[in-house]
Write a structure and sequence with these properties.
- The complex is a heterodimer of chains A (402) and B (134).
- Chain A has ten helices and 15 strands.
- In chain A, the strands form four sheets. Chain A has a five-stranded mixed sheet with strand order 10-12-13-15-14, covered by helices on one side. A four-stranded antiparallel sheet of chain A has the order 1-8-3-6. In chain A, strands 2-7-4-5 form a four-stranded antiparallel sheet, with no helix packed on it.
- Chain A is α+β, with helices and mostly antiparallel strands and 402 residues long.
- Chain A folds into three domains: 3-128, Jelly Rolls; 153-218; 221-387, Histidine kinase-like ATPase, C-terminal domain (Heat Shock Protein 90), CATH 3.30.565.10.
- The longest helix of chain A has 52 residues, at 130-181.
- In chain A, a hairpin with a 3-residue loop joins strand 12 and strand 13 (304-310).
- Chain B has 134 residues and is an alpha/beta fold.
- Chain B has a single domain (2-133), classed as Rossmann fold (3-Layer(aba) Sandwich), CATH 3.40.50.
- Chain B is built from six helices and five strands, in the order H-E-H-E-H-E-H-E-H-E-H.
- Chain B has a five-stranded parallel sheet with strand order 2-1-3-4-5, with helices on both faces.
- The relative contact order of chain B is 0.17.
- The mean pLDDT of chain B is 91.
- Chains A and B meet through helix 4 of A and helix 2 of B.
């Protein structure tokens, strides 16, 4: 590139937020591996999941950042717009950060002119010019954290509103159905009764799904850890058993409870742990053949309290095992059983926030029968927020005063 | 007339008319006197006219919400003894936390039911509250 045009490109680079603090010399060096590109409305600039090789600085026009959303493996993927990139802003952060593949797609909403910066060359330049590298990375970190915070807050707020708006009408419908089923609005014939019973089941499924979707948005580790308190795991287990008693009775599934001789208190998020056990038990019951057994065991190991839920169901197809804790995943052999595929992913997030582990395996005739076993380890050395604060203050106190 | 007056008087407050109709239909199966209100302000007006034996109260409502009603009831000696059953879609932890944050006090209520209420369970809870408090 001739020297004059390098100076012009360098000047244009300075107008973009990411390079705004670099000196002339650095900008001219970067201009060496830049090229101008124009895109028409509707054209795709970068694709989610593709190797992130180019950073785009928007000069004119507008890009929409889009994320592919697929509920279940067989449904049609849809694109959701999660943000816009306007002049001065950049698209393709991942060029400078792990995992080196684009985390969103970017589509032009209007004719757009960009400066495309070669990612490999830019990384090499920043590595060999640490002062410039530090400035760029500092701005990048701010941009990424700003975008992330904004997205998370909006999502959580939006979901809490949507959830209330959806729960209200559902509660009214379910209330009417229950009132009719209870005979409070007159006698029902057997067919009407069955239809209302089915309607209630469907509404309950929908209500659970809404709850799960909202939970998924709120399920950040720090939010779960803020609820850490001393609790008795035995009581939590008993509450979960109570939660699923009806479902077990309806299906004729026998619950075999094997508690330790004595429960010692642990630190954990009480309501969230109950959610994990209830979910595992509910799943076990859902996939159990009638008249089979579900085992719920607990015991203490030196470092952890361990819970185990085991059923005598068909097991999970081996090829599905690595995926069952992913959002919206449903195993390939459960088409007939209702659910959104969020329960296990929520359970996994809750246990991870406890620094614990949740493992699954098929028994494959180990006990002479088929079945699945989920094992949950919760460390016994977790701390409540108050304990963390005290420890932190004690450590501060140990620091030599200067 | 005298016989009517002896029947426990229950005031049900909810901004959703369908919820009100459902709850009234369930409670009508028992010898109760029932009245309804669609928001917290109307609820307080009705309470000044006649103090109920039980208040069934939603939380998220226009004009004055359920937390506001609880606060007023518990700060007024004439109404402080009225049992309150909260009936709402809001989860219990969250609403207790909100009340504590706003008032610095624990939410003094006698029962908490998350919607939708199971009719048989609702009748049992109402009967229990009336037995204790009437």
């Amino acid at each position: 590139m001739p020297a004059r045009s390098l100076t012009v490109t360098a000047e244009r680079l300075r107008r973009s937020e990411i390079f705004s603090e670099l000196c002339d010399e650095d900008l001219i060096a970067i201009a060496e591996f830049c090229r101008e590109q124009t895109f028409q409305e509707g054209e795709i600039v970068l694709v989610e999941g593709a190797p992130a090789e180019t950073l785009y600085l928007v000069e004119r026009g507008k890009l929409a950042l889009e994320k592919k959303i697929q509920i279940g493996r067989h449904s049609t993927p849809r694109n959701a717009t999660i943000g816009y990139v306007e002049p001065g802003k950049i698209a393709g952060f991942s060029t400078l950060a792990m995992p080196d593949e684009y985390s969103t797609s970017a589509m032009c909403l209007e004719p757009t002119r960009v400066i495309a910066v070669d990612g490999k060359a830019l990384r090499a330049f920043l590595e060999s010019h640490p002062a410039a590298g530090l400035k760029v990375m500092k701005i990048l970190a701010e941009l990424v954290s700003g975008r992330y915070r904004n997205a998370t807050n909006t999502l959580t707020y939006f979901l809490s509103i949507v959830s209330h708006e959806l729960r209200g009408p559902l509660a009214a419908i379910e209330n009417y159905l229950q009132t009719m089923l209870g005979g409070f609005a007159g006698e029902l014939n057997p067919k009407q009764k069955r239809m209302i019973e089915r309607s209630i089941l469907r509404v309950v499924d929908l209500r659970t799904l809404i709850g799960d979707v909202v939970d998924l948005a709120r399920m950040r580790p720090e939010q779960i850890q803020a609820d850490f308190e001393w609790c008795n795991p035995g009581e939590i287990g008993t509450e979960s058993i109570e939660d699923v008693r009806l479902a077990a009775a309806e299906k004729g599934v026998r619950m075999i409870i094997e508690p330790p001789p004595k429960f010692e208190p642990i630190v954990g998020a009480r309501r969230r742990l109950r959610q994990v056990f209830t979910n595992l038990l509910n799943n076990a019951i859902k996939f159990s053949p009638p008249d089979s057994r579900v085992f719920f065991r607990a015991w203490y190991e030196p470092e952890a309290v361990v819970f185990e839920v085991e059923d005598e169901g068909p097991g999970i197809p081996e090829e599905d095992l690595p995926h069952i804790f992913k959002d919206f995943f449903r195993a390939s052999n459960v088409e007939q059983t209702p659910g959104a595929g969020l329960g296990l992913s929520i359970a996994h997030k809750i246990i991870e926030a406890h620094n614990g582990k949740i493992l699954v395996r098929n028994l494959n005739g180990e006990t002479g029968k088929a079945g699945t076993r989920f094992t949950v380890y919760i460390p016994r050395d977790l701390m409540t927020p108050e304990m963390c604060r005290r420890e932190w203050m004690a450590m501060e106190g140990d620091q030599p005063k200067g | 007339m005298a016989e009517t007056e002896k029947r426990p008087y229950i005031l049900i407050v909810d901004d959703d008319p369908d919820i009100l109709e459902g709850i009234v239909t369930i409670l009508e199966s028992q010898p109760y006197r029932l009245a309804t209100a669609r928001d917290g302000k109307k609820c307080m007006e009705m309470i000044t006219r006649e103090i109920p034996n039980l208040l069934i109260l939603d939380l998220l409502m226009p004009r004055m919400d359920g937390w506001g009603v609880i606060r007023e009831m518990r700060s007024e000696p004439r109404y402080a003894h009225v049992p309150i059953m909260v009936l709402t879609t809001v989860i219990e932890d969250a609403s207790r936390r909100r009340y504590e944050l706003e008032t610095g006090m624990a939410m003094d209520i006698q029962d908490y039911v998350q919607k939708p209420a199971n009719p048989v369970d609702l009748l049992q809870r109402v009967e229990k509250l009336l037995k204790i408090h009437v």
